Structures are given as C-alpha cells and as structure tokens.
C-alpha cells in the first residue's frame, strides 16, 4: 500500500506521443505514474526508458476496448496503492475510413467511439471509486479543438474543413462527459476538465502538426496538478478557455 508521500497518476495511451510526455512530466513533478498502454511490450519499454531517467513510472496494461484489462488495472491500483489521485484519459485513435457524414465508414466511426468515448467512460467509471478515496483528485480528458461545436460551425475557423464525423463527434462526446461528470462531482474535491492539445505532431496525424509533443502535453499537465482553487468543468488549451 502506498503512503501519502506521493500522488498516484494513471495516464492512458502513454507509451508514445502526448501521453508519454504527460507521463514524463508528471513523474518529474514528483508523482508516481502508471503508464497505461494496450501493448505490453511497448508499454514496458516506455516505462523502462523513463525509469532509466530516474523517474517513478510503472507500466500497467490498459486496453480501453477490453473491459477485463480496465477492471484488472483498477484492481491492481486498489491492491497496491488504495487510491488514485490523477486520471488522464489520453488514449485516442483515428481511422483512415473516417470522413464526412455522407462518406465515413460506419465501422470506422464505431471503432473510434469505442476508444475515444466508450473507452474513456469505462476507465473513468472503473477508477472513480479510487479517485474518491484521494484527498484532492483530478480527472483530465484529452480532447481536441475538433470536438468544439462552436468552432465546427464557424466557416472562418482554421480547421473548419476538417470534418471527420467519427473523430470530431467522439471528442464532442468526451467534452459532454467532462461537463456532466464535473457536475456529478460538484460537491467533492475532484476536478474534471478537458484539455485541447492543439495541432501537435504525433502518429495520430502523420506528424503533420506544427506543435511539439511538449507543447501539446502542457495543458493536460497543468490541469492534472491544478490547485484547490482551480476550475472544474472547463475546456482549455494553452491559449485559454475553449468554446464548447
């Protein structure tokens, strides 16, 4: 059982990209980080690399589309630590068959939702009892500006032509989870917020983004360690508060 000396954080989809940078930065801030990944060999390698840098990072198998691994992760965290202080729902996917509403492959849209929304909801529900045991827990949902209905309806927006019904809608659904969960937990010390990384160069977009992973991870990291007087139920990027 862990002592209260270190806060415990779980980051999903953390073996590469923004998730890996979130894990690294939280560990550098003194947290014990559970690096969630669905591929054990990739997850173990990523955790070992951070461990070689002197960081307290441990791999935990977490496949958002496999409820058994989600429950097993929750059971392990309860057994080893008794609580969870920070949950970062970072894992997300795209699909080449995604597209406009009239052309997107239905199976692709379902696959995207299984990870980006249903998976995040499943992990959140499994971890919520552990988060409630922490004195001042944080939940961060890594969303996207593409999930903003306001921006999607603005023809002058920089990414107005990026109309991917599966990906965009899954992030809009994740934003709804953020709003509703923050309201559900309004009488607790748990803060729930959504982070927009911005257009970051990762495998998700073929490294076309113009931000580094350090820049893309920054807002999620900030929200993960918010002080007690920080906001809840918001959607934020490095530029400030995003419109829903």
What report would you give on this structure?
The chain is an alpha/beta fold and 244 residues long. The chain has a single domain (8-241), classed as Rossmann fold. 42% of the residues lie in helices and 14% in strands. It contains 7 helices and 8 strands, in the order βαβαβαβαβααβαββ. It has helices spanning 17-28, 40-52, 67-80, 106-132, 149-152, 165-184, 213-224, and strands at 8-11, 32-37, 57-61, 86-89, 138-142, 191-195, 235-237, 240-241. Strands 3-2-1-4-5-6-7-8 form an 8-stranded mixed sheet, with helices on both faces. Helix 7 (213-224) links the parallel strand 6 (191-195) and strand 7. The longest helix is centred in the middle third of the chain and has 27 residues, at 106-132.
């Amino acid at each position: 059982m862990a002592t209260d000396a270190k806060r415990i954080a779980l980051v999903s989809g953390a073996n590469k990209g923004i998730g890996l940078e979130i894990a690294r930065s939280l560990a550098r801030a003194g947290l014990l980080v559970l690096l969630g990944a669905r591929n054990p060999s990739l997850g173990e390698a990523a955790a070992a690399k951070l461990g070689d840098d002197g960081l307290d990072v441990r791999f935990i198998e977490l496949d958002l589309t496999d409820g058994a691994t989600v429950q097993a992760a929750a059971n392990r965290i309860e057994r080893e630590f008794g609580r969870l202080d920070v949950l970062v729902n970072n894992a997300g996917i795209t699909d080449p068959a995604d597209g406009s509403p009239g052309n997107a492959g239905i199976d692709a849209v379902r696959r995207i939702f299984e990870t980006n929304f249903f998976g995040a909801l499943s992990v959140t529900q499994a971890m919520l009892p552990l988060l409630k045991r922490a004195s001042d827990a944080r939940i961060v949902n890594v969303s996207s500006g593409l999930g903003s209905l306001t921006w999607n309806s603005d023809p002058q927006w920089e990414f107005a032509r990026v109309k991917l019904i599966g990906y965009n809608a899954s992030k809009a659904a994740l934003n709804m989870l953020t709003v509703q969960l923050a309201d559900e937990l309004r009488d607790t010390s748990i803060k729930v917020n959504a982070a927009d990384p911005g257009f970051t160069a990762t495998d998700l977009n073929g490294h076309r983004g113009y931000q580094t992973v350090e820049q893309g991870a920054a807002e999620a990291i900030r929200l993960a360690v918010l002080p007690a007087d920080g906001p809840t139920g918001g959607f934020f990027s490095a530029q400030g508060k995003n419109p829903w």
